[in-house]
């Protein structure tokens, strides 16, 4: 197999479904799930996923370029690697999802939904992570990088969202996020149904959702915008030098979640409101029946505003700056 993305989009299982070259062994585990194992011993186990939302194609193209170099034997692989294209059916349709948002279904939340492609896929991806990390002996480094693009434009075009984590984030992991060119990091303070929360909570992985620009169809992405992220991924996979980060990312923490609970929901923002737009205290941002969402602190920033989500799902986050940390950054 030479082109992981091509085989995934074709819907056909490759033949043969396993093989090796001078650098590694590979095995096609399922549609959009590929495991690569270096010939030399390693204590690193890395999961890189993309395409959890089928219209977020730039990270898929970047990841496939790196995997192609590995499959062709042109690069050495350092960690055990699990590569996941999350929602192949949605990728083929160039839609965010077919029936429901896959990135809200992890941690067993798929059981609360009717039988649909995304519910079945969430279950399969949970299985894949469990099998991958349980197979590793003496794993010292377990990371999960979930690559996305945002629906809206952003004051920080490249940013990371980190799940709730009671443990300290490893210094090497935070240094890697800086080297990947992320301009901001957002820290959750509550559990969620995302893929990265699942891997962090259940397997102790250092996990981050990387938002790399804006969603575009296949073939319309300017991949030069993501050169720092691609170089950082190459350093992780191939053992190359990690690029020096230009600036430490600004840090934010989630202060409120806006949830749509009914068809009466109204989001009081323009459709072109950018991620990380700041609003002053007292601003009414959304209402849903008798529920009102106001800015409670002196200034809060909006992230992922989306009035079109299904009832019961997140319609936006409000953030505050981590001033103590940002003051240290300068």
UniProtKB/TrEMBL annotation:
Cofactor comment text: Binds 1 zinc ion per subunit.
A Pfam family hit: AstE_AspA_cat
InterPro entries membership: AspA/AstE_fam, AstE_AspA_cat, Aste_AspA_hybrid_dom, SuccinylGlu_desuccinylase
Essential cofactor(s): Zn(2+)
Active-site residues annotated for this sequence: 211
Listed pathway(s): Amino-acid degradation; L-arginine degradation via AST pathway; L-glutamate and succinate from L-arginine: step 5/5
Keywords from the named record: Arginine metabolism, Hydrolase, Metal-binding, Zinc
Gene Ontology MF: a single term: succinylglutamate desuccinylase activity
Record domain AstE/AspA barrel-sandwich hybrid: where: 249-321
Residues reported in the UniProt entry to bind Zn(2+): 53, 56, 148
UniProt KW Endoplasmic reticulum keyword: no
Residue span, Succinylglutamate desuccinylase/Aspartoacylase catalytic domain: 44-236
Catalytic reactions of this protein: N-succinyl-L-glutamate + H2O = L-glutamate + succinate
EC number: 3.5.1.96
GO process annotations (BP): L-arginine catabolic process to L-glutamate; L-arginine catabolic process to succinate
Family, similarity comment: Belongs to the AspA/AstE family. Succinylglutamate desuccinylase subfamily.
Known function: Transforms N(2)-succinylglutamate into succinate and glutamate.
PANTHER family linked to this entry: ASPARTOACYLASE (PTHR15162), SUCCINYLGLUTAMATE DESUCCINYLASE (PTHR15162:SF7)
Full protein name: Succinylglutamate desuccinylase
Organism: [Pantoea] beijingensis
């Amino acid at each position: 197999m030479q082109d992981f993305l091509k085989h995934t989009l074709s819907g056909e299982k490759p033949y043969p479904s396993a093989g090796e070259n001078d650098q590694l062994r590979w095995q096609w585990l399922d549609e959009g799930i590929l495991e690569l194992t270096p010939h030399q011993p390693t204590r690193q186990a890395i999961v890189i996923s993309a395409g959890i939302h089928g219209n977020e194609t730039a990270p898929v193209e970047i990841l496939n370029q790196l995997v192609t170099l590995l499959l062709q034997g042109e690069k050495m692989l350092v960690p055990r690697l699990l590569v996941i294209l999350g929602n192949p059916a949605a990728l083929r349709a160039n839609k965010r999802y077919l029936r429901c948002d896959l990135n809200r279904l992890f941690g067993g939340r798929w059981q609360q939904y009717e039988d649909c492609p995304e519910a079945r896929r969430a279950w399969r991806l949970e299985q894949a992570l469990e099998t991958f990390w349980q197979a590793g002996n003496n794993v010292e480094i377990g990371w999960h990088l979930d690559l996305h693009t945002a629906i809206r434009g952003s004051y920080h075009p490249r940013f990371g969202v980190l799940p709730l984590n009671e443990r300290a984030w490893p210094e090497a992991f935070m240094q890697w996020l800086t080297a990947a060119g992320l301009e901001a990091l957002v820290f959750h303070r509550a559990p969620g149904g995302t893929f990265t929360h699942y891997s962090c909570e259940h397997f102790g992985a250092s996990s981050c959702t990387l938002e790399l620009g804006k969603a575009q169809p296949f073939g319309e992405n300017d991949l030069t915008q993501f050169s720092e992220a691609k170089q950082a991924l190459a350093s992780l996979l191939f053992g190359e030098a990690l690029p020096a980060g230009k600036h430490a990312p600004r840090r934010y923490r989630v202060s409120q979640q806006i949830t749509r609970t009914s068809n009466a929901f109204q989001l009081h923002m323009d459709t072109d409101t950018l991620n990380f737009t700041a609003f002053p205290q007292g601003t009414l941002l959304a209402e849903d029946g008798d529920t009102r969402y106001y800015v409670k602190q002196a200034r809060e920033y909006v992230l992922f505003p989306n009035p079109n989500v299904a009832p019961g799902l997140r319609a936006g986050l409000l953030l505050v700056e981590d001033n103590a940390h940002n003051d240290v950054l300068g």
